[in-house]
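for the writeup, i need someone to sanity check this before i put it in the appendix. the sequnce is what the collaborator sent (i think, or maybe the updated version? ugh). structure was predicted straight from it, no edits. if anything looks off just tell me and ill rerun, i have time this weekend
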Amino acid sequence: RVALWKTLSSGTGGRVALWKSMAPYLILSVMGATGISFVLATATTGLEFRQKEKYGDTKEYQDWIKKSWVGIKMDPAQKDSNSDEGESEGDKEAKS
């Protein structure tokens, strides 16, 4: 604590030094929060798709969807209509 207060009270140079020492931790914290948000948004998208597929025709499900919020969700991955599923670029070139 004493070192922190000395750094803060030593003027502008001390504050800059403090920010420089904290920068990697702040950047990693933001990256971690972003990663967790990405994972949760992806999971939400998959869950919503499966729930709609399984329960989409029921009245209970439709009523629930009208009054609830899904949260942040990502658009599902779009498949390229020109590509064959499961083939790599090398396989496609070999066919040509």
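The two ends are 68 Å apart (CA to CA). The longest helix spans residues 12-55.
thx in advance!!
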